[in-house]
Amino acid sequence: MCRSTIFRMNILITICARGGSKGVPGKNIKSVAGKPLIAYTIEQAKVFAELHDVDIALSTDSDDIRSTAAQYGLETAYIRPQNLSGDSASKESAMRDVLFYFESQNGKRYDLLFDLDVTSPLRTQKDLEGALLIFETQSDVMTLFSANPAARNPYFNMVEQDSNGYYHLCKQSEVPIVSRQQAPKVFDLNASFFCFRREFFDGPSRTPFTDKSVIYEMQHMCFDLDEPLDYEMLNYLIKQDRLDFDFGS
Question: Is the pTM of this model over 0.85?
Fold first, then answer.
């Protein structure tokens, strides 16, 4: 028996993929190692859905993305509104809209929303299970972000410009930090997945950060695909079997 059967949580997985990318045109359905990028996230979502009896929602404004998703078993009648499809629209607003739509269509209120990002697909089922366990065992957690240890540290080797044009460390410490090892541990949000308790969407927030947010620390490589070179790198890693973990399992 899986944990979700015991806890009986209603979970919605959202896959948000708008069609208007300027940096990498068609990025969500761009071919990577022989199949569209979105296919990796759909396949991961379907495995998790089968284990925990959850629903999967696609949010897109693009007919091409909708058609490609359907080829991999994810069909939808939902169309993302144009006012939630531009560069200035927050992803939280898009998730809220598709969440309310699926609650209305399915006649139920979800307990959790797991958003799986198409352009950061290097996640495992163990990652998703670990995130779910946090929500099951820590009832006060409101939002969760996937993360990796940061390569740079704002207490030690990251600077910002002040109003006079000079530079200083981004974060100051009461005790001077003279080595990387002394600096507080910080993390990069890798955008692979964001998880929300349903109550989050009852408020007007445009940012996922709350006073009850936590991270899930990934123990493996993960990066977001922002530039054409990122796609080439992922394509190489998959084709040459150079990933340091069992991708998608």
Answer: yes
